[in-house]
Design goal:
Two copies of one chain form a homodimer. Chain A is an alpha/beta fold. Chain A has two domains: 134 residues, Aspartate Aminotransferase, domain 1 (Alpha-Beta Complex), CATH 3.90.1150; 229 residues, Aspartate Aminotransferase, domain 2. Helices cover 41% and strands 16% of the residues of chain A. Chain A is built from 14 helices and twelve strands. Chain A has a seven-stranded mixed sheet with strand order 2-8-7-6-5-3-4, sandwiched between helices. The first copy, chain A, has a five-stranded mixed sheet with strand order 1-11-12-10-9. In chain A, strand 9 and strand 10 form a beta hairpin. In chain A, helix 2 packs parallel to helix 11 and helix 3 packs parallel to helix 4. Chain A starts with 28 loop residues before the first strand and ends with a helix.
Chain lengths: 371, 371
């Protein structure tokens, strides 16, 4: 075969979840990819109207002007600090391509969103995984010392973290950004809506990024906004960084259906905020119930829309996940990630879903106890 | 600012067309980006049904299985030789990232689809523009000698060529692919449906690519299939190349709305084929009428859905394009491309559109003659 790019040929592909939902199994409980499923009829209506006008034949708005205007208004930030992408994955990829050179150091604190690793590897940059004693408890000093030692070109962190659900304290993170001016901090806030009550708190780093030279905030419509199938993410940063990213970003990247759907969604923040409150209640309920089970060693409640469930030493994690899958409950195996040996992740989408999952947990519990 | 990637920082951005269509001007005649505008009610229906089921909340099918199955059937090729992308632009980008290293030579014959240049530059590869005496007439020997001299890593060619509309003869191109085994040939067939009557002819290189080590064929749903706003492209090649591209390709790249729309479109080939015949007739009519005008030096009929119009030496090309724009006819300025000094490109979408454009041409003609 034709010789490949030296960096790409050694990439380890990102592990994907089951595609059964698209293989005729639309009754499964999909708790494996952290999607939410709130149907907003107003969003559906704008898509249908758009299609009925036949406007899908035109290339999409390459500036995503109306979507960016709506986001600008929603966040009270200038439009020129916003750039829209085909999902936050594309945003992360474009960030890596724009700022990484061969051999550059990129720090993540283990565990992290593993899809990001592919983008780092494709640039020939060096991914440094920083391991701490307990992945579910941030050791600030340890992290600070690691950064001081490595002086990386980039730090990537999902905040709240996926999959642990922990939140980096604001002031600590802010001080890192201020103290490591040559390090680009990429904060992936896919789950930030679940972490705070007030928009001011959610938007803390987003606002900070406008006048900070080394900070990019990444957002997505795939989680709370329930539009994963339409692929829309966006980033907020200072204008110079936005301009730099636009050099390599493909201008026709986001479909017009996605642009108008996202714009309509953001206009109905209250709808999603109400749904969020419901999810958080359901999540707490789930944590309490699941923690009481024999086969469960520990449930890690989170600042997000998912929780990590750790099974007891004597329990086979793979068989557990397989059992749940056969029962129609799809959870995410995290056990191959270092430090998460006996852990699977469960997406929470509401009380009804939680009851259905718990029922299967009880069934599993009976099997374990009767063995 | 944070130091940029050494290749990306010197990229010259691709020149975009006017976005007036998304700025409230939906009555303009959009003849600038080679889109077609055939509304297929069946395509619209599947999108609307999909939206009404709320399935947009799930991440898209990362294997695009049903779309690839339909394409496999349509082309009579195995499914494993097909990969689907967020528009053919993403396909071209992923090809460059997978196979180009710093300093690799990439040959194009001037003029070419300029957006491709960005992808080459981002990899630090060297774009070699091969100029021939007449861009509208292929000199085979000249091209062959150039390839022999440069021995490039990659040759990119749109076939039919955009913007000249010329077609590379099958046997000539096939012999190049056979004789330059270390060169990857990327044939962009965005406009191939307009070039041939029979599917066998359209699919000649596509079929050849299955068992050829150095050939990738790129297709799109943005032209004849009238789905530019939904961003769907695909490539066909041998299995090893498909696997290599999948390493860096983002699995969630194509929205689910786009996947189901494209699948439905391809099922109605006869509908689009009929439309194509209409376009070609309208194009010939346009060429005859336009060529008779005083301000026009020459009209270059094409193997595609567009034509190049060359204005006389005494005519100001920029004022001409500006005049047409003010009259609501948006054409594509190609005059900044070497060898195309006084040329603009016009997309043909049907008889009605051609009549509207000609009316504005006549208006311009009167102005020129009365000056």
């Amino acid at each position: 075969m034709i010789e490949m790019n030296v960096n790409v040929r050694s990439i380890e592909p990102y592990k994907l979840v089951s595609q059964d939902i698209w293989r005729g199994k639309q009754n499964i409980i999909k708790a494996d990819w952290n999607e939410e499923f709130f149907r907003n009829k107003k969003v559906e209506k704008v898509i249908i109207n758009f299609v009925k006008k036949g406007l899908y034949s035109y290339y999409p708005d390459v500036e995503a002007k109306e979507l960016r205007e709506t986001l600008s208004e929603f966040h009270s930030i200038p439009i020129n600090n916003i750039s829209v992408f085909n999902g936050s994955d594309e945003a992360l990829d474009v960030i890596c391509r724009t700022f990484l050179n061969q051999g550059d150091k990129v720090v993540i604190r283990n565990p992290e969103y593993t899809n990001f690793y592919v983008f780092v590897q494709s640039m020939g940059a060096v991914l440094l995984k920083h391991f701490q004693k307990n992945p579910f408890v941030l050791s600030k000093n340890d992290f600070l010392e690691y950064l001081e030692r490595e002086k990386p070109k980039m730090v990537y962190l999902s905040n709240p973290n996926n999959p642990t659900g922990i939140l980096y304290p604001k002031e600590f993170l802010k001080s890192l950004i201020e103290n490591f001016k040559s390090t680009l901090f990429v904060i992936d806030e896919a789950y930030v809506h679940f972490a705070y009550e007030k928009i001011e708190d959610m938007d803390f780093f987003l606002k900070l990024s406008i006048n900070t030279s080394n900070l990019i905030v990444v957002r997505t419509f795939s989680k709370l906004f329930s539009l994963a199938g339409l692929r829309i993410g966006y980033i907020v940063s200072n204008e110079d960084i936005i301009k730099a990213l636009n050099l390599i970003k493909k201008p026709k990247n986001v479909t017009m259906v996605s642009q108008i759907a996202a714009r309509e969604a953001i206009r109905h923040w209250d709808f999603y905020n109400d749904k969020k409150i419901e999810i958080l209640k359901a999540k707490n309920y789930f944590c309490n119930k699941a923690a009481a089970l024999y086969f469960v060693k520990r449930v890690y409640n989170s600042n997000s829309n998912f929780v990590c469930v750790e099974v007891k030493e004597e329990i086979d994690i793979h068989k557990t996940i397989e059992f749940l899958k056969k029962e129609g409950v799809y959870v995410r195996d995290r056990s191959y990630i270092p430090q998460l040996d006996r852990i699977f992740r469960v997406t929470i989408t509401g009380f009804e879903q939680v009851e259905q999952i718990l029922n299967k947990f009880y069934k599993l519990e009976n099997r374990v106890l009767n063995k």
